[in-house]
Write a structure and sequence with these properties.
The protein folds into two domains: 2-167, Regulatory protein AraC (Jelly Rolls); 171-277, Arc Repressor Mutant, subunit A (Orthogonal Bundle), CATH 1.10.10.60. By secondary structure, it is an alpha+beta fold. It has helices at residues 99-105, 119-135, 138-167, 177-189, 196-203, 207-218, 222-240, 246-252, 257-268, 272-277, and strands spanning 2-6, 19-27, 31-33, 40-47, 50-54, 60-62, 66-70, 76-80, 88-95, 114-115. Strand 5 and strand 6 form a beta hairpin. The strands form two sheets. A six-stranded antiparallel beta sheet has the order 1-2-9-4-7-10, with helices on one face.
Length: 279
């Protein structure tokens, strides 16, 4: 077990593109954060079982060998599944101006329980971060930034390996032409009011069967997939079109402004206005 460590940066936050805020490992107790946490977090479930509750989403069960990525300021609650059983949960919280682009590359993993072949490697990297932060020196924080980036790359590598493996699975789990037709429809009309029934019809399935096949293939619901498309497009608009208003971005991606701001913050850890002020 590694007790909670809070990083003290001596004003290095403005220099480090990615930095560790805190890191630790312990037998997790019930924790409720209705306002979320101000940094992005990666959780590693080492032993025992626990549950995460996220506003507006189905409750998730974390088992040994799984990871969970939680964007900053996302209201959440988590607790061990059984009071009498220890749930060993490892975690690292991080921030920095490269954090959001890296998380954007992991959009299929965000707020989803993920089993990864690289779990042991991730644990070793988290442990090394803890020892670096415990040294509390400037060099240690520079080095922890590098290792935090390596940890993110390890997660991305696992995501890529899982995609390749899925292509070699049985035909029942492969992306078929019907699902690809539905995905193409989503990409072409993500900024419109896409009824799930219409998307399912384009694939030739009932709503229930389409929903099941889509989640099985892509790991997210059709609605979550469309939201991810909208968030990626909104980020592109903010980065590429200087002076564009938040209201205009929301209009382009087909969302009501207040809902767009709320979803943007949930996805990237800050509001569109806060993002623009930092870029």
């Amino acid at each position: 077990m590694m007790p909670f460590l809070l990083a003290q940066f001596a004003n290095l936050e403005q220099l480090l593109p990615l930095y560790v805020c805190c890191v630790g490992s312990h037998a997790q107790k019930h924790l409720d954060r209705p306002e979320g946490y101000p940094a992005h977090q990666i959780f590693l479930s080492r032993s025992g079982y626990g549950r995460f509750r996220i506003d507006g989403r189905q409750e998730l069960r974390l088992s040994p060998g799984t990871i969970f990525i939680l964007p900053a300021n996302t209201p959440h609650e988590y607790y061990p599944e059984r009071d009498e059983e220890n749930w060993e949960l490892d975690f690292v919280a991080f921030r920095g101006y490269t954090a959001e682009p890296l998380l954007l590359q992991m959009d299929e993993l965000i707020l989803n329980m993920v089993a990864t072949i690289h779990f042991d490697s991730l644990w070793d990297q988290l442990e090394s971060l803890w020892y670096l932060i415990s040294q509390n020196g400037e060099h240690a924080y520079w080095e922890s930034s590098k290792r935090m980036y390596n940890m993110m790359l390890t997660i991305l590598e696992g995501q890529s390996a899982s995609k390749k493996a899925s292509k070699n699975e049985s035909p029942s789990r492969q992306a078929n032409a019907a699902l690809q037709t539905a995905v193409q429809l989503m990409h072409e009309h993500y900024n419109e009011r896409l009824a799930l029934a219409n998307v399912a019809r384009s694939a030739g399935y009932s709503v229930q069967h389409f929903h099941r096949l889509f989640v099985e293939q892509f790991g997210v619901t059709p609605q979550q997939y469309i939201l991810q498309l909208r968030m990626r497009k909104s980020m592109e608009l903010l980065q590429e079109q200087s002076g564009i208003t938040i209201e205009k971005v929301a209009e382009i991606v087909g969302m009501e402004t207040s809902y767009f701001i709320r979803m943007f913050k949930r996805t990237f850890g800050k509001t569109p206005k806060q993002y623009l002020l930092n870029h």
